[in-house]
Amino acid sequence: MKKILAMMMLMAMCLTVFSVGAMAEAVPETATYSIHVLADDWGCATDKVILALDAPIEDAATYEYTVQETRVAMDWATFSVGPVTADKRITNIYLCDDKGLSVEGASAYVALELYASPIEGSPLFTNNDNFGLNEWSDPYYMTVTMKNEAGEVKVDEACTDKLTDTDMFKIDSFTADNGTVYQTALYSPEQDSKTMVVWLHGIGEGGTDIRMPLINVDMGALVSDPFQSLMGGAYVLAPQCPIYWMDTDGKGGSYVNGSIQADGTSFYTESLHELIAAYREMTGAEKVIIAGCSNGGYMTMVLAMTYGDEYQGYVPICEAIEDSMISDEQIAVLAKCPLYFIYAQNDPLVVPAVCEEPTIARLRAAGAEDLHVFAPADVHDTTGRFVGEDGKPLQAFGHGSWQYFFNNEVVDENGVNCWEWMASCTK
After folding, report:
1. Structural domains in the chain?
2. Which residues have CB under 8 Å from 330's CB, separation 6+?
3. Each residue's pLDDT tens digit, 214-262
C-alpha cells in the first residue's frame, strides 16, 4: 500500500512539473493591434495601442515595449505631403480586454497608453483635394516592439480597428425630401428631456464618416455630467453635412482654389431644418439650441436668420459669415434671437473685423436684448497640461475658440456663463 501511495505521489509530482512546463511554453509569438483615438478640446490623437496576443500572459510588465507612429502629414515648409514617423512616449502599460479596459488576471490583450498633445500629430489628414475634409491618414500605422528574455513578439503593422469615445451616440442617417443624405449621431439622456442641443461641425468634419464631427472636438463634454446637469438632461444631435455647410449648390461649387467663396446662404438650409424637425418629433424635444463652430457657426447664423425664434437659442462660434452678406432685414430678425457669440480676437482665418464685430455692433444698434459676447485675446491651453517653449500656456491657432466652449470657460463681460445661458433659454 505504501508503495502504491508513493507511486501515486510521484506521478502527481510529474504531472505538476509537466503542467507548469507546458504553461511556461505557452508564450505569445505574434500579435495584432487596434488603436484608441482620444477626442480633446484641441482635436484628436491616438492615445492607446491595444495589443492582441496569440497567447495570454500573466504580467505585461515583464516585457519591454516601444511604439513608433507613421502617418501622412503636410510639410508646411515645402507644402509637400508625405509620411512622417515619430517615436511615441508610453505613459502606462497594463493587461486589458479587447476594448482596452483594465482587467485583473491573465489576458491576451495589453494596453499601451501614449502621450497625446496638440503637437503630437493626428490620425486624421486634411485632404485639400477633397474640399478640405478630414480623412483617416493613409498610410497610418504603429510599429510596435514587445520583447523580453524569452524573445520578441512579432507585431503586425496593420491596424485592425479604430476605437473612439463615441459609443454613447446612436449612429444613423437621414434622407431629406430633396434627396440629401446626412449621417447623424444622437445622444439620449438618461432622464426624460424636452431639450435638444444641435451641434454643427466645422468644415473639415463633413463627409460620410460620422466619427469626424464627434472626435475632432470634445463632443464628450456635451454628454458629460456637468453639461447634462446644467441642462437638466438634453439630447445632443450632431448631423454631418455631406460636404460643408457653406456650400451654395450642394456640389462643393463654393470651394475654389482651396478656399470657400460663400454668399451668406447654404444649399443645406431647408434639408437641415427638416432633419432637426424629424429628430424633434422622434425625441419629443420642445426646446432646441443650435451651436456650431466656423463653417458650422456660419450655418448657425443662417438658421437664425431664416427661422428666427423657432429655435430657443443660438451659439455661433468663430462664425464665418461676413457682415456684408447680412441685410438690415436679417439683422432685424437676429436682434430678436437669443445669441451668444464666441470668437478670439486674433483669429486669422475668420477675421473678427470682417465677420463678428460689425455684425454685433449692428445688432446692438438694432436693440438686441439677449446678446452675449465672449472674445478673448487668443486661444491657449487653460488646463495646465501643455506649455510652449517660453514656459507659458501653449498657444493654439486663433481660430480654435471652440476650445473655451467645450471646457465651459465662456463667460461674457457681464459674467453670464454660456452653458448656464443655454440652460436658461430652455426654461
Report:
1. 29-164 (2.60.40.2180), 170-425 (3.40.50.1820)
2. 305
3. 999 999 999 999 999 999 999 999 999 999 999 999 988 888 777 788 9
Residue with cell string 463633413:
206
The pTM assigned to this predicted structure is 0.90
Residue 242 contacts residue 207 (beta carbons within 8 Å): yes
Distance CA 411, CA 17 (A): 69
Residue-level pLDDT at 128: 80
Instruction: Give the integer Cα–Cα distance in Å for 281 and 274.
Output: 11
**Dist. CA 110–CA 171, nearest whole Å:** 29
C-alpha grid cell, residue 152: 520578441
Spell out the residues 6+ positions from residue 185 whose beta carbon is closer than 8 angstroms to its own: 166, 169, 170, 171, 172, 210, 213, 214, 237, 238, 240
CA angle 378, 46, 407 (to 5 degrees): 35
State pLDDT tens for residues 70-97: 999 877 677 678 899 999 999 999 999 9
Phi-psi region of 94 (alpha: psi -120 to 50; beta: other; left: phi over 0): beta
Find the radius of gyration of the CA atoms of the chain.
Answer: 26
* pLDDT the model gives residue 252: 86
| pLDDT grade for 270, boundaries at 50, 70 and 90 | very high
DSSP 182-205: EEEEEE--SS--SEEEEEE--GGG
Residue 246 grid cell: 457653406
Nearest residue to 344 (alpha-carbon basis) of 335, 334, 360, 357: 357
**Separation of alpha carbons 262 and 248, rounded Å:** 7
Digit-coded pLDDT (tens) for 162-183: 999 888 999 999 999 999 999 9
Q: What is the torsion angle, in degrees rounded to the nearest 10, for the CA atoms of residue 199, residue 202, residue 205 and residue 211? A: -30
Query: In this structure, how many other beta carbons lie within 10 angstroms of the beta carbon of residue 117?
Result: 16
Q: Which of 353, 354, 346, 356 is nearest to 397 (CA)?
A: 346
DSSP 3-state of 254:
coil
**CA separation, residue 68 to residues 60, 87, 89 (Å):** 19, 4, 9
